[in-house]
Amino acid sequence: IGKVVAETDAILIADCITAAGALPLWTDEWHVDVVGAGSQKALMLPPGLACVSVSEKAWAHVDQIDAPCFYLDLKAYRKSLAKDDTPYTGPVSLIRGLKVSIDMINAIGVETIWQRCALLAKATRTAAEVIGMQVFSKQPSDSVTGLLYPDGVDDGFRTRLRSKYGASIAGGQNELKGKACRISHLGYVDPLETIGLIAAMEYTLADMGADVEIGAGVTEAVKVLRDWQ
């Protein structure tokens, strides 16, 4: 897509909220002109900070914009960044926190983090299939896994998982509300957390009357996570 768009006057804008810092992202090589990301995902911070990268091609388009804007005025930000400043009062604590997050990512290596994220996702999906939870997407992302509940199980699964076993996961949205759950693999997540979550999910399914072999999912997950680096 990027190569095609690069040969035109159009710009390629990518929503990378759940991708930046978790999945491979090569903005220059892929000819992605604008990338948008948020602090609350793989950057491991509270919400409130937007991160945007802009290519030279995209800047040329920005310079032609004469519509009024305020919330994300890229021209104003470019002018202030030249002086190591922001055009408006910024979320200082989040910006300082971002520095710590970036240091952590660099210490590990972003490509190693991509590999770890993929491994956590693979372990979760493999375990889920064994314990009767179907992976929702035909092309699942490595940053988050959506799972469908087995027959006879509803969103009380998440409530019990949290109240009895201390594990909190997100639920389905819109038409999937009460029918599915979502498990994140991005940010500060390690194999022990993932294995513990899978064990808690097995217990919860059993508590709710599902036909599940305790330990089956965990067994498959630890095999996958043996390749952790």
From TrEMBL:
Pfam family, one: Aminotran_5
GO annotation terms (biological process): glycine biosynthetic process, by transamination of glyoxylate
GO molecular function, one term: L-serine-pyruvate transaminase activity
Keyword vocabulary terms for this entry: Pyridoxal phosphate
GO CC annotations on file: peroxisome
SUPFAM superfamilies named in the record: PLP-dependent transferases
Needed co-factor(s): pyridoxal 5'-phosphate
Keyword Metal-binding in record: no
Domain Aminotransferase class V, chain residue ranges per copy: 1-141
Stated name of the protein: Aminotransferase class V domain-containing protein
